[in-house]
Each structure stands twice: as C-alpha cells, then as structure tokens.
Task: structure prediction
Amino acid sequence: MNKSTSLVAKLNAINEYERQPIPESKLKSWKKFIGTYAGEHTAGTEFVLGPLFVAHGASAIDLVTGLLIGNVLAVLSWAFFTGKIAAKTRLTLYYQLEKIAGSKFTLIYNLVNAGLFCFLAGAMIAVSATAVGIPFNLEMPTLTDILPNSLGWILTVFAIGAITTVVAMFGFEQVSKFANIAAPWMIMVFIAAAVGVLPRLGINSLADFWPVAKNTIWTGVPLEGQSQFTFWHITFFAWFCNMAMHIGMADMSILRYAKKWTAGFSTASGVFLGHYIAWIASGILYSLFLLESNNSLTFAPGPIAYEAAGIAGAVCVVIAGWTTANPTLYRAGLAIQSINPNWKTWKVTLFVGLFTTIAACFPALVMRLLEFVALYGLILMPVGAVIFIDVYFMERWGLVKNYALESGKKLNPAVAFTWILTLGFCLVLNLFADVEIFFLGLPGWFVAVIAYLIFSKLFQKPIVFKTQKVNLTSEPILNH
Amino acid sequence: MKRLIIITSILGLITTIVPPFLVFTNQIDPSTSKTLMLIGTVVWFISAPLWLNKKEQESV
Result:
C-alpha cells in the first residue's frame, strides 16, 4: 500500500461511526478503558505541571489533599457527565454538537480547538527540546523567559518540530503504537526517578518522607516572580485541567464505545497515575534541582530527568513530549481540514506543524502551562454545558432538542451567544473581580446552562414536521 | 515463544524500576542504578513491540 492510500485508510478509520451511533457489537467493557486512560494521562505535560506546583509554592498537605479531591471530582465528572451522555447518545462530540449547534458553529469550534491543540503540541516540542539539547550543552530557558534565549534553542526546537511534523504527516499509526508501548515504561521511569533521588533530599526511610516533603519539597513558599498556590488552586486545577474532556464532553468520542456509563470511572487509572503519582514524582525531581542549584530559575525537564535517572530519564522526557505532541498535531490538522475537506491532509499538517514549531520557540508556552491548560478547558467548557442541557432538559422545558438538525439551520444562534456570553462573563470575573483562571470554570458552567436555556427560548421557532414521529429529521418546516 | 518474550519485557520493566529502590535502601550506587535503568529500557523497547500492539489488534 502506498503512503497516500495508507493515509486515506487511516482517515477512514478515524471517521468510523462518526455520524452514527456505535453498534452494540462494537461496545467495549470498562477494562479496555482502564488501559486507554492510563496511557493517555501519563504524558509530557506531567514533567512540567508537577514542578510548576513546586514553583508556585504549594504546601505538602495542600498538594496531597488538593490533588486527591480534585482528581476524584474529575473522575466523577467523567462518569456522571461524559459517561452518561456518551452511553445515551453513542455519538462523537462533533456530531452531537453539529445536531445541536449546526455545521457552521462546529467549524468555528474545530478551528478554536485546532489553535489550542497547536499551542499544547508546541509546549511538548519545547519539553522534548530540553532533553535533546543536553549533549549540545544547550542554554536552557528560565521560569521568567518569554522569548527564545539563544539561536541554539530555536534550532533545536525547529529540528524536533520538523521531525514531529513529518511523522504526523505520514506516520500517525506508528506513533500511536509506539505511544502504547512507551506508556507503561514511562510511568515506571517517573516513579523510579523520584525514588532514586530521595536519599539526596535527606529521605533514607519512609518515616523521613513527610517531614522532608513539608520542609524541603513542597515548602509553601513560591519561587521569585511566581504566584502563591493554595489548596483551592490545586483542587480546581486537578478537577478542571481536563475540563475540555469531561465537562466539555470531548471524551464522548471515547466513552461512546463503553457498554455502560460506569466506564467513566475507568478514568481513575489515568488521573491517579498521571495527575497524582507522576505530578508528585516530577515535583520531587524539581525540588532536588532547586536544592542543588540554590533555587535557580532555570526550568528544563530534560536535564532534571537526566540528573535523576540518567539516559533513561532524558529519553523518557523526549518520548513523553513527542508522543503527546504528535497526535495533538495530527488532530489539529484534521480540525483545520474540516474547513475544506478537499485540502490535502499533508499540506494542512505541514502548515499546522510550522505554526506549532514557531510557537514552541517561545518558552512562555511551557512556563505558563498551568494557565494555558486551565484556559483550554475553560474555552471548550460552554459547549459541554450546552450538550448536557440539550440531551437532558430541552424537551422537559418545551424546547426542541437538536435544534440545528430539526430546523435545518447551519448555525444555532442560542449556542453561539451562550459561548460568547459565558466566556465574556469569565473574562469580566477575571479582569474586574480578580478571580484567577483556575476558578472560572465552575461559575462559567452555571452561566452557560442558564444562558443556553434563555437564548433557546428567545431564538427557537416552533417546528412542524411533515412526517410526524416517523422520521424526526425529515423535511422540517420552520414556522415564522 | 510469546510467553518468553512477555517475560523478557516484564523483566525489562522490573530492571527499570527496581534499581532506584536499591539506591534508596543503600544497596547500589546511583550510577549503577542509571546503567541498569538504561538496560531495562532497551530490553523493554526491543521486546514489547513483539507482543504488545499485536495483542491489542487481536482484542479489538
């Protein structure tokens, strides 16, 4: 099979059941999802997020309890929001959204999503660059850096960006297989690297751990120029860092394959390995670096992992960053391609890769990853609130569900105005009431729910069907 | 044969994770641990592709 045929086959595989419910024979048990989620949430981002909690002065007790509660809330959100709706509709987010909001809105959503994917992939390329640069004695970026600090950094980022882009253009399937193989090994390296450095932190027995954790690792004192993180920051971050996936409903695409909605609880494997153990492990590694470098502001996961676990550690950073960047870049390409399906996939991916690589040159993308991840979830959250209300409450309140499909409209204004109003409300809270980005998702969700109901009342027009109850999608007539 | 490859992979993972615990209990030095971790990594990445994805393809 030649490459272009192979690519078409891959795209066809991705589109399987995209516009129809998953058939009964294709449903999978919850065990399948445990492995999927465990692999998906141990990624390159974990090498950055765990250390950033240390940099932001999280205390040990706040970290341990905040992550526990936040992760439990995230799992519950996956099960009770995404799992239930995915099992009820058996559709992808994109098709469900198209039925509710129309094809034009879905296009806008895809574009926004693609932009966010590019920045996330860019951050992961930069993380890989910190490990690849070790043998070249590359000058590493610092926590306060915004612009690239050397030509060497730009060249390294471009080299990794080029490889990532080429692989995303032609070898997504191989990367996906490679990521499956790397996942169990990566979590081992995370744990092993942290355990190996414990004696250097003064921990020589289990009894030593908690006193050192409190006084040396998570001291409760932020680094110079960093804001203070409290229990609430950690809880809300752990809950909302994947808000786009659970409350935002993006994981409908995965959980629609589940036999029962309770498969949503399988996400616990991912969040507790990746967002608990891996964050704690990478935080330990970073605190050792701070201790031995006298609180240097240099922030480079590659050398930190290399110092702790040798070549295996550095390789782990490269693989973690690369296996996260690659599928993300590929998804961004597909999202952009939805503007015009006639565009060649490889050309779109090449353009997306170039944009992503330029973004990756700016270290601010890595240093502000906490804020970016929170923003990513926040921007996509209103769409999840709209789907939640549409699936459960529209008919109860005398409104039409799947309004775009039933009315034949390409843009449901109720959804568009809900999105704009919700994000506007969050922006006002942030700018004028000093509410930090990590906390905006919760009030924002309630605003989105109320706004969607009100706008639907205002914008929906009664629909009369020619073929009542026989086929709800056939020939709708709008009553003006 | 397949069972042997799986056992080899598992041994690779064990060689990756156990050495740092031996550093923690002061039985080996960190440089030996790093070398063993690298060996475990190589063993895992050579042996795991021979069965891991194939198993998944069969089960889907």
Remarks:
- Residues 56-60 of chain B have pLDDT under 50 and may be disordered.
- The CA atoms of residues 12 and 40 of chain B lie 4 Å apart.
- DSSP finds three helices and no strands in chain B.
